[in-house]
């Protein structure tokens, strides 16, 4: 599957009930849901399958829940891609699938990552906004000229940039950029901004304790847009990821242009990355096939 890339979604793709068919109809799904409950010391399975939504949306629950469902789907597929990538949290799912990090360590680490990220900034102090219809150069220029409290958080496509930082400064930056459309994101903290450095520092020792090994397939990481083939490099990138931007457009450009990927499968809840893959391919004037794998039925799509 040399020209086939797997993409793993990040926070925002969660939904109550995700993975229900995996839990109810597969031995592996039930086993891993129950293992996750035991590892974390609380019933993540109940939160994931039954909600309530407000509980699932808590960052320290969202992150392990998404990783768990994505990993079950990956295991049930039983295939390895030529290369993979994950959007923010999804990078952990990619390295878990590639065997670079043990399941229990991955689950506990993203749970703590969520806690650290939430605790880094008091609720209400930060904000994130998606700027649509504007390019990265314009956004970077405005931020350099007007704000030292706002950062580019996600470069999702050529014309979709997410900014993150102090609430008032984000509002001022939205006005200054004057994008065709701006959407404030319903998030509980300003992720991937300099305000997350405290969380990044707290996470580093946790990552140092994990026995990373070399991934069995390469992963293009978020912070450097580099093909990662060693466990040491995987750990290093994840350490720096929390307060730095997710360079998703550059990642997809690299996969399509440099690695000649022609088929993508989003492995996990939602279709966010599937939509971005189609949009970016169109922006690059390339033809790609994109499928979304979030249920047992979807697994049949891969031939």
Helix and strand arrangement:
Layout: E1 4-8, H1 20-25, H2 27-40, H3 44-50, H4 53-56, H5 59-77, E2 83-86, H6 90-97, H7 103-120, E3 126-132, H8 136-146, E4 150-157, E5 160-166, H9 167-177, E6 181-184, H10 197-208, E7 219-220, E8 227-228, H11 231-241, H12 248-258, E9 263-267, H13 272-283, E10 289-293, H14 296-299
Parallel strand pairs: 1-2, 1-9, 2-7, 9-10
Antiparallel strand pairs: 3-5, 3-6, 4-5, 7-8
Helix pairs in contact: 2-5, 3-5, 5-6, 5-7, 7-10, 10-11
Overall outline? globular
The share of residues in extended strands comes to: 15-25%
Order of SSEs: EHHHHHEHHEHEEHEHEEHHEHEH
Percent of residues in helices comes to 40-55%
Q: What would the average pLDDT be, to the nearest integer? A: 95
Estimated structural class: alpha/beta
Strand order in space, largest sheet = 8-7-2-1-9-10
Annotation, overall tally of beta strands? 10
First-residue to last-residue Cα separation = 11 Å
Helix segment count?
14
Unreliable stretches covering 5 or more consecutive residues: none
Radius of gyration, in angstroms, nearest whole number: 18 Å
Main beta-sheet strand count, sense and barrel state: 6 strands, mixed
Oligomerization status of the protein chains: single chain
């Amino acid at each position: 599957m040399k020209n086939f890339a797997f993409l793993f979604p990040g926070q925002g793709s969660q939904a109550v009930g995700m993975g229900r068919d995996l839990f109810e109809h597969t031995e592996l799904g039930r086993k891993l849901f129950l293992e996750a409950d035991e590892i974390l010391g609380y019933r993540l399975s109940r939160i994931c399958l039954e909600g309530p939504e407000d509980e699932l949306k808590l960052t320290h629950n969202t992150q392990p829940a998404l990783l768990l469902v994505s990993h079950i789907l990956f295991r049930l597929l039983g295939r390895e891609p030529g290369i993979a990538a994950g959007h923010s949290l999804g990078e952990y799912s990619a390295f878990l699938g590639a065997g670079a990090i043990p399941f229990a360590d991955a689950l506990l680490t993203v749970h703590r990552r969520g806690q650290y990220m939430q605790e880094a900034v008091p609720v209400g102090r930060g904000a994130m906004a998606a700027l649509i219809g504007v390019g990265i150069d314009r956004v970077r220029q405005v931020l350099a000229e007007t704000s030292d409290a706002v950062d580019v958080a996600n470069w999702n496509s050529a014309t979709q940039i997410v900014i993150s930082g102090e609430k008032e400064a984000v509002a001022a930056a939205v006005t200054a950029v004057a994008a065709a459309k701006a959407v404030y994101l319903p998030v509980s903290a300003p992720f991937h901004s300099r305000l997350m450095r405290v969380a990044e520092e707290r996470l580093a020792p946790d990552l140092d304790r994990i026995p990373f090994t070399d991934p069995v397939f390469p992963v293009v990481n978020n912070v450097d847009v580099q093909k990662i083939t060693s466990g040491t490099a995987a750990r290093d990138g994840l350490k720096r990821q929390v307060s730095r931007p997710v360079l998703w457009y550059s990642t997809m450009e690299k996969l399509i242009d440099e690695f000649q990927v022609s088929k993508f499968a989003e492995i996990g809840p939602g279709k966010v990355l599937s939509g971005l893959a189609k949009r970016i391919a169109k922006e690059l004037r390339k033809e790609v096939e994109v499928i979304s794998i979030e249920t047992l039925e979807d697994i049949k799509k891969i031939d």
